[in-house]
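JOB MANIFEST
job_type = single_chain_structure
chain_count = 1
residues = 216
[input]
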Amino acid sequence: MRRFPRLAMVSMFAVLVGVGGPILGGFPGAAAAKKPKHEKPETLAAFDMVVSAGAASCLPNARGHVTVQAAGDNQQMRVTVEGLPRHTVFTLFVLQVPTAPFAMSWYQGDIETNGAGRGSKTFLGIFSSETFTFALASRDAPQTHPGIDASTNPITAPVHMYHLGIWFSDPADAADAGCSAGVTPFDGDHQAGIQVLNTSNSGTEAKDGPLGQIEP
Protein backbone atom coordinates (compact mmCIF):
# COMPACT_ATOMS: atom_id res chain seq x y z
CA MET A 1 0.00 0.00 0.00
CA ARG A 2 1.27 3.46 -0.90
CA ARG A 3 2.01 5.69 2.07
CA PHE A 4 1.79 9.49 1.94
CA PRO A 5 4.17 11.65 3.93
CA ARG A 6 2.56 12.99 7.11
CA LEU A 7 3.01 16.61 5.97
CA ALA A 8 1.27 15.88 2.67
CA MET A 9 -1.70 14.29 4.45
CA VAL A 10 -2.11 17.32 6.72
CA SER A 11 -1.97 19.68 3.75
CA MET A 12 -4.55 17.63 1.86
CA PHE A 13 -6.93 17.68 4.87
CA ALA A 14 -6.59 21.44 5.13
CA VAL A 15 -7.48 21.82 1.45
CA LEU A 16 -10.54 19.58 1.79
CA VAL A 17 -11.80 21.51 4.82
CA GLY A 18 -11.20 24.81 3.05
CA VAL A 19 -13.14 23.67 0.01
CA GLY A 20 -15.87 21.86 1.91
CA GLY A 21 -16.63 24.76 4.24
CA PRO A 22 -18.13 27.10 1.64
CA ILE A 23 -19.94 24.23 -0.05
CA LEU A 24 -21.63 23.07 3.14
CA GLY A 25 -22.41 26.63 4.08
CA GLY A 26 -24.21 27.08 0.77
CA PHE A 27 -26.87 24.43 1.49
CA PRO A 28 -29.98 25.52 3.42
CA GLY A 29 -30.12 23.95 6.85
CA ALA A 30 -26.50 22.87 6.82
CA ALA A 31 -25.76 25.19 9.70
CA ALA A 32 -27.68 24.59 12.91
CA ALA A 33 -30.51 27.13 13.01
CA LYS A 34 -31.92 28.38 16.29
CA LYS A 35 -35.37 27.06 17.00
CA PRO A 36 -37.96 29.79 17.45
CA LYS A 37 -39.06 30.21 21.03
CA HIS A 38 -42.58 29.04 21.87
CA GLU A 39 -44.82 32.01 21.52
CA LYS A 40 -47.18 32.76 24.39
CA PRO A 41 -50.88 32.68 23.34
CA GLU A 42 -52.41 36.10 22.75
CA THR A 43 -54.54 37.29 25.67
CA LEU A 44 -57.88 38.43 24.30
CA ALA A 45 -59.51 39.52 27.58
CA ALA A 46 -59.13 39.41 31.35
CA PHE A 47 -61.92 40.21 33.81
CA ASP A 48 -63.14 39.54 37.34
CA MET A 49 -66.12 37.70 38.76
CA VAL A 50 -67.81 39.03 41.91
CA VAL A 51 -69.71 37.37 44.73
CA SER A 52 -73.42 36.97 44.04
CA ALA A 53 -76.07 38.67 46.16
CA GLY A 54 -77.16 35.32 47.61
CA ALA A 55 -73.65 34.42 48.78
CA ALA A 56 -72.44 37.86 49.88
CA SER A 57 -73.25 37.28 53.56
CA CYS A 58 -71.85 33.73 53.84
CA LEU A 59 -68.88 34.03 51.45
CA PRO A 60 -67.93 37.72 51.51
CA ASN A 61 -64.35 37.04 50.32
CA ALA A 62 -65.31 34.93 47.31
CA ARG A 63 -63.95 36.18 44.03
CA GLY A 64 -62.86 34.95 40.63
CA HIS A 65 -60.69 35.96 37.72
CA VAL A 66 -61.01 34.95 34.07
CA THR A 67 -58.41 35.08 31.31
CA VAL A 68 -59.32 34.29 27.70
CA GLN A 69 -56.53 33.54 25.23
CA ALA A 70 -56.44 32.71 21.54
CA ALA A 71 -56.21 28.99 20.76
CA GLY A 72 -56.24 28.58 17.00
CA ASP A 73 -59.83 28.79 15.77
CA ASN A 74 -61.07 28.54 19.37
CA GLN A 75 -60.48 30.31 22.65
CA GLN A 76 -58.93 29.05 25.87
CA MET A 77 -60.62 30.31 29.02
CA ARG A 78 -58.94 29.95 32.42
CA VAL A 79 -61.13 30.55 35.46
CA THR A 80 -59.50 31.00 38.88
CA VAL A 81 -61.45 31.27 42.14
CA GLU A 82 -60.58 31.90 45.77
CA GLY A 83 -62.23 32.66 49.11
CA LEU A 84 -64.44 29.58 48.78
CA PRO A 85 -64.96 26.51 51.01
CA ARG A 86 -62.09 24.03 50.72
CA HIS A 87 -62.32 20.73 48.84
CA THR A 88 -65.66 21.65 47.28
CA VAL A 89 -66.94 21.23 43.72
CA PHE A 90 -68.50 24.19 41.91
CA THR A 91 -70.17 24.35 38.50
CA LEU A 92 -69.43 26.94 35.82
CA PHE A 93 -72.16 28.13 33.44
CA VAL A 94 -72.18 30.45 30.45
CA LEU A 95 -75.23 32.69 30.89
CA GLN A 96 -77.42 35.07 28.95
CA VAL A 97 -77.73 37.30 32.03
CA PRO A 98 -75.71 36.98 35.26
CA THR A 99 -78.49 37.18 37.86
CA ALA A 100 -81.75 35.31 38.45
CA PRO A 101 -83.66 34.11 36.54
CA PHE A 102 -80.65 33.89 34.17
CA ALA A 103 -82.53 33.02 30.91
CA MET A 104 -80.43 30.82 28.57
CA SER A 105 -77.69 28.87 30.36
CA TRP A 106 -74.96 26.48 29.23
CA TYR A 107 -73.19 23.99 31.54
CA GLN A 108 -69.49 24.53 30.83
CA GLY A 109 -67.73 22.45 33.50
CA ASP A 110 -66.62 21.97 37.11
CA ILE A 111 -64.01 23.62 39.32
CA GLU A 112 -62.85 21.96 42.56
CA THR A 113 -61.15 23.95 45.31
CA ASN A 114 -58.06 22.85 47.21
CA GLY A 115 -57.33 22.93 50.93
CA ALA A 116 -57.00 26.72 50.83
CA GLY A 117 -60.33 27.32 49.10
CA ARG A 118 -58.70 28.11 45.77
CA GLY A 119 -59.27 26.44 42.44
CA SER A 120 -58.77 26.86 38.71
CA LYS A 121 -59.72 25.17 35.47
CA THR A 122 -58.98 25.79 31.80
CA PHE A 123 -61.71 25.31 29.18
CA LEU A 124 -61.36 25.14 25.39
CA GLY A 125 -64.24 26.31 23.21
CA ILE A 126 -65.90 29.39 21.75
CA PHE A 127 -65.75 32.19 24.33
CA SER A 128 -66.30 35.35 22.33
CA SER A 129 -68.91 37.44 20.55
CA GLU A 130 -69.76 34.24 18.64
CA THR A 131 -70.97 32.32 21.72
CA PHE A 132 -74.63 31.50 21.15
CA THR A 133 -77.36 28.85 21.18
CA PHE A 134 -80.35 28.35 18.89
CA ALA A 135 -83.01 25.84 17.85
CA LEU A 136 -84.47 25.71 14.35
CA ALA A 137 -87.13 23.18 15.31
CA SER A 138 -88.90 21.72 18.32
CA ARG A 139 -88.15 18.05 19.02
CA ASP A 140 -88.64 15.54 21.80
CA ALA A 141 -85.97 15.92 24.50
CA PRO A 142 -84.35 13.05 26.47
CA GLN A 143 -85.89 12.38 29.87
CA THR A 144 -82.61 11.88 31.68
CA HIS A 145 -84.25 13.26 34.80
CA PRO A 146 -88.00 12.54 34.48
CA GLY A 147 -90.18 15.22 35.96
CA ILE A 148 -87.37 17.79 35.77
CA ASP A 149 -86.25 17.76 32.13
CA ALA A 150 -88.38 19.47 29.49
CA SER A 151 -90.15 17.05 27.16
CA THR A 152 -89.46 19.26 24.12
CA ASN A 153 -87.32 22.28 23.27
CA PRO A 154 -88.70 25.65 22.20
CA ILE A 155 -87.88 27.05 18.77
CA THR A 156 -85.54 29.99 19.19
CA ALA A 157 -83.49 32.21 16.92
CA PRO A 158 -79.79 32.61 17.82
CA VAL A 159 -79.36 33.89 21.38
CA HIS A 160 -75.89 35.11 22.35
CA MET A 161 -74.61 34.42 25.87
CA TYR A 162 -71.78 36.57 27.21
CA HIS A 163 -71.94 36.20 31.02
CA LEU A 164 -70.54 33.62 33.46
CA GLY A 165 -71.81 32.23 36.75
CA ILE A 166 -70.55 29.72 39.33
CA TRP A 167 -72.73 27.59 41.63
CA PHE A 168 -72.30 25.12 44.49
CA SER A 169 -72.53 21.70 42.83
CA ASP A 170 -74.28 20.33 45.93
CA PRO A 171 -76.78 22.28 48.10
CA ALA A 172 -75.44 20.41 51.15
CA ASP A 173 -72.05 22.05 50.61
CA ALA A 174 -73.73 25.44 50.52
CA ALA A 175 -75.46 24.69 53.84
CA ASP A 176 -72.16 23.57 55.38
CA ALA A 177 -70.66 26.93 54.36
CA GLY A 178 -73.44 28.79 56.16
CA CYS A 179 -75.23 29.69 52.92
CA SER A 180 -78.79 29.01 51.87
CA ALA A 181 -79.54 25.34 51.19
CA GLY A 182 -81.88 26.20 48.32
CA VAL A 183 -81.84 23.81 45.36
CA THR A 184 -81.20 25.06 41.82
CA PRO A 185 -80.83 23.11 38.51
CA PHE A 186 -77.25 24.24 37.85
CA ASP A 187 -75.56 20.82 37.88
CA GLY A 188 -75.64 17.62 35.87
CA ASP A 189 -78.26 16.06 38.14
CA HIS A 190 -80.14 19.38 38.45
CA GLN A 191 -79.59 19.36 42.21
CA ALA A 192 -77.15 22.24 42.72
CA GLY A 193 -76.82 24.87 45.40
CA ILE A 194 -76.93 28.65 45.14
CA GLN A 195 -74.94 30.84 42.81
CA VAL A 196 -71.65 32.02 44.31
CA LEU A 197 -69.95 34.18 41.65
CA ASN A 198 -71.04 35.98 38.49
CA THR A 199 -70.07 38.71 36.03
CA SER A 200 -72.70 41.25 37.07
CA ASN A 201 -69.85 43.70 37.70
CA SER A 202 -69.73 44.08 33.90
CA GLY A 203 -73.43 44.97 33.84
CA THR A 204 -76.64 43.01 34.34
CA GLU A 205 -78.00 43.13 30.80
CA ALA A 206 -77.28 40.40 28.25
CA LYS A 207 -75.32 42.80 26.05
CA ASP A 208 -73.01 43.70 28.94
CA GLY A 209 -71.38 40.29 29.29
CA PRO A 210 -67.57 40.37 29.04
CA LEU A 211 -67.36 37.55 26.48
CA GLY A 212 -69.16 39.79 24.02
CA GLN A 213 -66.20 42.16 23.99
CA ILE A 214 -63.94 39.46 22.54
CA GLU A 215 -63.59 39.39 18.77
CA PRO A 216 -62.50 35.95 17.49
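[summary]
The chain has one domain: 43-134+145-213.
The domain at 43-134+145-213 is CATH 2.60.40 (Immunoglobulin-like).
exit_status = 0
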